[in-house]
């Protein structure tokens, strides 16, 4: 790790053992999870503040909007360099309630203030999100545009698409409203009603920490539609895309640059997406293997 001692603090799922194998120390944060109530946020900030005081980090890398917001509220010594990686606005970027609009404005304003006043860098995944921070007074030298988390090109290769018909569509995403999975299902229902021979395979799981997550009953209803199948978590995405003709990304917004789009492109599949920041306005290249 080039002289660094990496400590990953989070609520861990299936990636726990992979992180250990990569040489990271792990710290389970019991307070993190679903909910934006003031009392819950205070508990999360308190737990992070105590962790920072105990571990005395040199660099803090806060990944995603909520962890970045919590770190900006926590007690962080002035000499510590903070990287706020805003990988998209997610639920706060798509919902238009008074609470979500207020929370989004507060989160962006706080991160911009922190970036102006301390040793900090804001990392975003598209130019649209970069403009949000420039408008709040963050200079270009403190903003880095990193177009997505990237993919390992050795794990993806082009395969000739299967014979058609049917036209095989694929979608890989967390099963939350912002990803537009329900829009893809409705579109396939329309195509089937018009007599077109089309299928839709969905790779992804429910996100129980997201207030706009789809439910088990939604999945059951989708699976009743001829040609539609939800597979849950899929570990081998190269094989998944090899059996598809087209990749869908019907996002409602709040994106950085979805990894599923990079994976589909790396596997040589064309993409159909909505005209929202982070997907249609992103530009990226996949190096030929």
Describe the protein in words.
This protein has helices at residues 16-21, 38-55, 65-73, 90-94, 98-117, 127-134, 181-193, 216-223, 237-242, 259-266; strands at 7-10, 25-28, 59-63, 81-86, 120-124, 143-145, 167-172, 198-203, 228-232, 246-249, 271-273. The chain is an alpha/beta fold. Helix content is 35%, strand content 18%. The two termini are 27 Å apart. Mean pLDDT is 88; it is low at 282-289.
Q: Which of globular, elongated, flat, extended, rod-shaped describes the shape? A: globular
The SSE string, one letter per element, is: EHEHEHEHHEHEEHEHEHEHE
Reported CATH architecture of the largest domain: 3-Layer(aba) Sandwich
Lateral strand order in the biggest sheet: 9-8-7-10-11
Low-confidence stretches: 282-289
Largest sheet: 5 strands, parallel
Number of helices: 10
Q: Which fold does the CATH topology of the largest domain refer to?
A: Rossmann fold
Beta-strand residue fraction? 15-25%
CATH homolog superfamily of the largest domain: Glycogen Phosphorylase B
Radius of gyration, in angstroms, nearest whole number: 20 Å
Number of discrete domains: 2
Structural class: alpha/beta
Distance between the termini: 27 Å
Helical residues, percent: 25-40%
Break the fold down into its secondary structure elements and pairings:
Elements: E1 7-10, H1 16-21, E2 25-28, H2 38-55, E3 59-63, H3 65-73, E4 81-86, H4 90-94, H5 98-117, E5 120-124, H6 127-134, E6 143-145, E7 167-172, H7 181-193, E8 198-203, H8 216-223, E9 228-232, H9 237-242, E10 246-249, H10 259-266, E11 271-273
Parallel strand pairs: 1-2, 3-4, 4-5, 5-6, 7-8, 7-10, 8-9, 10-11
